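On clarity, I found the account of how folds are encoded harder to follow than it need be. What matters is that the chain and its backbone geometry are given together, residue for residue. For the editor and my fellow referees, an illustration may be useful. For illustration, here is how one protein appears when written out as sequence plus structure tokens:

___
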Amino acid sequence: MRVALGLALVLMLASPLSHAVKAGEAAPPLVAPNAGQQPVSLAQYKGKVVYVDFWASWCAPCRQAIPQYERLYRQWASRGFVVIGVNIDQDRADADRALKRLPVTFPVVYDPSGSWPERFELPTMPTGYLIGRDGIVRHVHEGFRTTDLPALEALIDKTLGEKS
């Protein structure tokens, strides 16, 4: 009993305390497979401004947001802006059906095990993270309302204008 208790204490102390990722902090280093089962790493986009959008097929605000993020991606891709959609559906077929109705050209990764949401400690669905060229989170966007878009666009434009 003492050994098990001691081992549990060592494991707790050895693992980092988790907390929700906030603006001003480094984005966690993460990798997940895309539709072709190729690994996509957040690190491969260092030097670009990245918007990480957590979504699921069952999330109505997520489905509203996807076409808007596609528009932003197309608008600013030439300036170094990337959207990464992180799908968290347990069943990949649900995500694929949603993407047939809402096609996107930005990268989408699949994370049914929930490692990305766990590392970011999502406060709600959907949640998006605007990450600067240096890998530091500039803004956390909880939920989605079309009325939020002008402010989000201004933040993206500002972040794109920052020196790397």
User: Anything to note?
Assistant: Strands lie at 31-33, 39-41, 49-55, 81-87, 108-110, 127-131, 137-142. The domain at 19-160 is CATH 3.40.30.10 (Glutaredoxin). The chain has one domain: 19-160. Helices lie at 2-14, 60-76, 92-101, 115-120, 149-160.
